[in-house]
């Protein structure tokens, strides 16, 4: 049975300490478990809380972990009741629920009263993210490899911690390769998945249906670009994409830009923006515009745009939901690193 | 007044940047050095770590108010921004 929801205990599980015993400074989240939870979230698995704490503890946990919790049961009654209520609230059968708690007594109680649920200790979770129960049926190669990519990422981050040079030097040491290409029909399912799953690097915040993506791939007026990433630790596959349209006014507009947060910190979004600026300039464009949803979730995208010299249209304020970020294509353009290769031969045909 | 940021804030920002980037030499970063581009080379990852830590330590959510992230131009501009916002009162929810 595929797990659709993970119900987390807080004290000494998702949090590295006991919430009510920690005084002014509540316990930090457990980084390994939060990473595991984020991994499961990226597979479409949702999270919930069952904790012997006041409701503030759940709000605190949501804030410090950055996770969205679909349900939170905070109180002092039996955890098995909390698990059953959560399953009912979310319209899930109890056998689609996993329960994670550091306390053997609580695990035994839930195992006894909700035998259908998968009951795990925090120590189990590191492995459990690779189990079939946490691997929903998926269509894309990237999704199938998610467990492996997670292991690859752990190895990469371990080496990064002990690496003495700059981040650029580390990316070179890793043999980072970013490959930019023109999308084909075969890329459409993964592009759709990216449009659904990406948030930190997504300009629209809206899923794009496969037929619409197929239309854009076939459109002479649009350039649909794919970005693939690999290094010596592993192949992350298709991690990003964008849709570009050339306007008659000499302005190229990126109508959609998205990238997996797995590629964050690996120079990919920076490479893509630099490549777009260079390609648009060579195509005769005078400016590159990126209309963008402004949300707390895609701040990383705004940072990348700012670093690449983009500015929001004058008069825009951070209070509004949308802004057009643009940059002129004269003068010094951001540099495309030499480990970026592009197989996009021609630009966009002007309408 | 040089920039208007309290010296303590500048020092904390240097620590945050050094930790976020893993570059110890940023502990001596000039207040006027650009954070984006050559020099610090702030990017989406290190910038996110910086903003998160600024929010946590000072209660100032730069990204929520500063659309173009102009506050991140230099250490001096960021320290000024933080000092002014912190003086205006704690951010809601912090």
Structure description:
- The complex is a heterodimer of chains A (351) and B (94).
- Chain A has 12 helices and 13 strands.
- With 351 residues, chain A is of the alpha/beta class.
- Chain A folds into 2 domains: 5-134, Rossmann fold (3-Layer(aba) Sandwich); 142-342, Aminopeptidase.
- The longest helix of chain A has 17 residues, at 146-162.
- Chain A is elongated and about 70 Å long.
- Chain B has 94 residues and is mainly alpha-helical.
- The radius of gyration of chain B is 12 Å and the shape is globular.
- The termini of chain B are far apart.
- Classes of the chains: A alpha/beta (351), B mainly alpha (94).
- At the A-B interface, α12 and β11 of A face α2 and α3 of B.
Low-confidence stretches of chain A: 346-351
Strand arrangement, major sheet of chain A: 11-12-10-9-8-7-6-13
Indicate how many domains the architecture of chain A comprises.
2
Helix count of chain A?
12
What does the oligomeric state look like here? heterodimer
Report the CATH architecture of chain B: Orthogonal Bundle
Beta-strand fraction estimate of chain A: 15-25%
Overall pLDDT metric of chain A: 88
* Total strands of chain B: 0
Low-confidence stretches of chain B: none
Count of structural domains of chain B: 1
Radius of gyration of chain B: 12 Å
Return the CATH class of chain B: Mainly Alpha
Amino- and carboxy-terminal Cα gap of chain B: 29 Å
Roughly how many Å is the radius of gyration of chain A? 23 Å
Which percent range fits the helix content of chain A? 25-40%
- From the spread of the alpha carbons, the general shape of chain A counts as elongated
Global structural class of chain A: alpha/beta
């Amino acid at each position: 049975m595929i797990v659709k929801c993970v119900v987390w205990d807080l004290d000494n599980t998702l949090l590295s300490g006991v919430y009510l015993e920690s005084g002014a400074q509540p316990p930090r989240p457990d980084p390994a478990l939060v990473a595991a939870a984020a991994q499961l979230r990226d597979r479409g698995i949702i999270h919930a809380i069952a904790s012997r704490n006041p409701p503030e503890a759940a709000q605190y946990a949501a804030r410090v972990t950055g996770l969205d919790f679909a349900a939170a049961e905070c109180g002092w009654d039996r955890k098995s009741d909390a698990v059953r209520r959560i399953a009912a609230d979310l319209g899930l059968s109890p056998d689609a629920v996993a329960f994670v708690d550091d306390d053997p007594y609580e695990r035994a109680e839930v195992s006894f009263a909700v035998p259908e649920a998968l009951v795990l200790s925090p120590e189990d979770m590191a492995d459990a993210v690779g189990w079939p129960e946490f691997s929903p049926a998926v269509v894309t190669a990237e999704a199938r490899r998610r467990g492996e990519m997670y292991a690859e990422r752990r190895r990469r981050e371990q080496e990064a911690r002990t690496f003495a040079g700059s981040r650029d030097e580390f990316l070179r040491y890793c043999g980072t390769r970013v490959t930019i290409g023109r999308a084909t029909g075969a890329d459409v399912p993964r592009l759709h998945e990216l449009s659904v799953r990406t948030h930190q690097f997504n300009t629209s915040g809206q899923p794009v249906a496969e037929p619409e993506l197929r239309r854009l791939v076939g459109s002479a007026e649009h350039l649909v670009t794919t970005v693939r990433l690999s290094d010596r630790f592993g192949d992350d596959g298709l991690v990003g994409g964008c849709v570009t349209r050339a306007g008659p006014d000499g302005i190229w507009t990126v109508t959609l830009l998205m990238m997996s947060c797995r590629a964050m910190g690996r120079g990919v979004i920076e490479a893509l923006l630099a490549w777009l600026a260079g390609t648009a300039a060579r195509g005769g464009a005078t400016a590159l515009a990126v209309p963008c949803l402004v949300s707390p979730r895609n701040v990383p995208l705004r940072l990348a745009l700012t670093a690449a010299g983009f500015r929001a249209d004058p008069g825009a304020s951070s209070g509004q939901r949308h802004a057009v970020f643009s940059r002129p294509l004269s003068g010094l353009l951001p540099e495309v690193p030499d480990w970026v290769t592009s197989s996009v031969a021609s630009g966009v045909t002007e309408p | 007044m040089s920039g208007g940021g309290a010296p303590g804030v500048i020092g904390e920002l240097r620590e945050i940047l050094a930790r976020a980037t893993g570059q110890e030499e940023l502990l001596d970063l000039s207040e006027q050095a650009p954070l984006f581009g050559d020099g610090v080379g702030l990017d989406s990852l290190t910038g996110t770590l910086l903003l998160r830590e600024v929010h946590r330590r000072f209660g100032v959510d730069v990204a929520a108010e500063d659309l173009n992230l102009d506050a991140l131009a230099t250490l001096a501009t960021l320290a000024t921004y933080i000092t002014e916002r912190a003086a205006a009162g704690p951010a809601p929810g912090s």
